[in-house]
Structures are given as structure tokens and as C-alpha cells.
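From the thread on structure requests for the teaching lab: each student submitted one protein with a one-line request. Submission from student K.M.:

"Model Putative ABC transport system ATP-binding protein from Nitrosospira briensis, C-alpha cells only."
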Amino acid sequence: MSIVRLEHVFKEYTLGEQQVCALNDISLSIEDGSFMAIAGPSGSGKSTLLNLIGCIDTPSLGKIFIDHQDISGRTPDELSDLRARAIGFIFQTFNLFPVLSAAENVEYPLLQFKELSVTERRSRVSKYLAIVGLSRFARHRPNQLSGGQRQRVAIARALATQPKIVLADEPTANLDHKTGEGILQLMKDINGSFRTTFIFSTHDRRVMEMANRLVRIEDGQIVRHEAEEQETSLSAKQRRERDNPPDRAAGQSETDGTQT
Ligand SMILES: Nc1ncnc2c1ncn2[C@@H]1O[C@H](COP(=O)(O)OP(=O)(O)OP(=O)(O)O)[C@@H](O)[C@H]1O
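Reply posted by the TA:
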């Protein structure tokens, strides 16, 4: 069942006298529980697409359904409420409050949920800090944590509201190779355990290879979809071998079977 659906979505920005077409007729269905990567060159429209799915911005034309709700015509307050309850965000620069501890950062988005008691809030914070392996660091401020630990706090914060969808804009871009891999594996494990849908924008080949679906955009248009649900059981290497059997692959570069 699709958790996100876009129908003929266009997004234009006005820049002085100029109109910039950032998304040009995007139609896309994202299944519940996906671990999906959006790839494409700089300026292709990845962030714009994430912003529309995240209800941070609205399309110039077309329809967007989030968790089966048509979001066109919603007021900014209604969009903000939907965003707070259905969607978690992870950013490449972590975006933590520097003056708050790890626990307070995770608790922050829960403050707007008036139905949660203080005890419930605190227990959620402990639960998600434990899931990301940071219980011992609850009182640390971001500047007392490594980059990978900061991103773990950001993941706990994104999950604390128990959203159906987590949007991650280049989540490994500011992390070294090994730390980035740990963060990816953590998100993949959470995706497997809780069936939270993850949607990434990325330039990182490892993110693309770990995804069970890859959508590539160029100049605001989808140029290639790769991997549907039946592909999830295949590793990237198996997919490459299947798509490039030894005799056909001979003489091709190692990257030919994948997309960047
Ligand atoms: N607020 C804005 N006003 C005007 N033009 C914009 C605005 N935001 C984005 N654009 C333009 O829309 C297009 C798509 O931008 P977007 O940020 O979505 O690309 P991207 O694929 O995320 O790029 P990157 O990988 O560099 O982050 C670009 O041509 C960009 O210049």
C-alpha cells in the first residue's frame, strides 16, 4: 500500500523575473515500509521533492497524498500538524539545538503533543536514545558528541514522534566512511524492525546500494526507477551480477550495473 503518492507534480520557483522549473511532472508512488533513495546531480530537484513530500513546501500544480490524505488545499497550520505527526526529518548537518542536551533535543518535537504526559515524554526519549545506542550520552550537548553520535541523536529525534515516514536529506554527507555506514545500517535496522518508511536524497553510492528502491531524477524529471519490492531480497552485488552476467560484463567497468 502506498504511503506517499505524487500525481503530475510541478514545482516552479520565481527568481526575479525568471521562472525556475524545479520539478516537471513527477508521478511517484512510495510503498509503506520502503527504504528508498532519490539520486541525481546537483540542482536536479532532490531537495525540492523531499520538501514537498515533507509538507515543508507545496506544489505549483499536481496532487500529493501522504498516508492517503490529499494535502492540497490544506492550511499552513494543518500542514504543520500533519508534518509533526506523520513525518520525521534527518538533515546532513544534524540541525540539533546546541544548548540542549541529547535527551532534550529528542524531547523537543514531543513538546507540541499536549496529549503526552511528562512521564510518557521522558520514557519515549529513553526508548529512542536506547535504540540509537546513546543512553549513556543523554546529558551530553551536541558539541560533546562525535558527528556519528550527533546524527544518532537526530535519528532518535526523528523517530520520537513515531512517524510513518522519515525523510533524510543527504544523511551521510558529513560523516566519514565508517561512521556513515554505521548510520545507514542503523536506519536500515529501524526500517526492518518498525517498518518506518525511509526516503533519502543522496549522492552516496552506499545509500543507493542499500536502498530497496532507487529513483533517479535529472532536470526535475524522473529518468529511471530501479528496484521494486521483489528486489529487496537481492544484494546490490547480486543485482549487478544478474544484470551483467560474466560474458556481458567482461570489459565493462565495475560501476556499469549501478546508477550514480
Ligand atoms: N527557493 C528557491 N528559489 C529559486 N530557485 C530554487 C529554490 N530552491 C531551489 N531552486 C532551484 O530549483 C532547482 C532544484 O533545486 P534542488 O535544491 O531541489 O536540487 P538538488 O537536487 O537538491 O541539489 P543539491 O544536490 O545540490 O542539493 C535548482 O535549479 C535550484 O536552483
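TA comment: The chain has one domain: 2-227. Strands lie at 2-15, 18-31, 35-39, 61-66, 69-70, 87-91, 165-169, 197-202, 213-218, 221-226.
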